């Protein structure tokens, strides 16, 4: 960069005052300042554009790596699912070929009951309330008994000693 000190600036100002003249110097100084400001803004915009393009390239590379990793995970899940399905089909075929109706390896019994699927309690507050154990409610500070405001005040009012 150009190394301009205070003494050099004073020398440039004195020469400009002599060459340009005192009546035109303020207008020339404003014009030079405006042009320098525009040049600085232009350089800043170019730097910002270069930085954005570099970040965009980095993001594209990162996107490609994430997509390849996702494809690898998806492929491994598909292969493991197909292996599991193949093993399950072989087991079911073996049970049908055996003819006993029991599957001791899987825990199925011929007289076993089918458990219904989980259903969310929705707005049934009794089911929701019963799902959390009392010891957890006591530890978490959940109120289990309804108490009116007046009763609560009376409960926590300091006792008078006679």
UniProtKB/TrEMBL annotation:
InterPro entries: TatA/B/E, TatB. The gene is tatB. It is found in: Cell membrane; Membrane. It comes from Pulveribacter suum. It is a single-pass membrane protein. The keyword Transcription regulation does not apply. Belongs to the TatB family. Its main location: membrane. The Tat system comprises two distinct complexes: a TatABC complex, containing multiple copies of TatA, TatB and TatC subunits, and a separate TatA complex, containing only TatA subunits. Substrates initially bind to the TatABC complex, which probably triggers association of the separate TatA complex to form the active translocon. This is Sec-independent protein translocase protein TatB. Pfam families: TatA_B_E.
């Amino acid at each position: 960069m150009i190394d301009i000190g205070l003494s050099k600036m004073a020398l440039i100002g004195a020469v400009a005052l002599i060459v340009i003249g005192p009546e035109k110097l303020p207008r020339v100084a404003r014009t030079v300042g405006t042009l320098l400001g525009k040049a600085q803004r232009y350089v800043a915009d170019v730097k910002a554009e270069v930085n954005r393009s570099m970040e965009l390239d980095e993001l594209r590379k990162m996107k490609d790596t994430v997509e390849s990793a996702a494809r690898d995970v998806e492929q491994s899940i598909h292969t493991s699912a197909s292996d599991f399905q193949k093993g399950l089909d072989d087991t079911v075929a073996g049970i049908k070929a055996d003819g006993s109706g029991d599957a001791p390896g899987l825990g199925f019994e011929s007289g076993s009951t089918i458990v219904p699927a989980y259903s969310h309690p929705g707005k049934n507050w009794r089911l929701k309330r019963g799902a959390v154990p009392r010891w957890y409610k006591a530890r978490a500070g959940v109120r289990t008994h309804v108490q009116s405001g007046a009763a609560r005040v009376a409960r926590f009012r300091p006792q008078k000693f006679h």
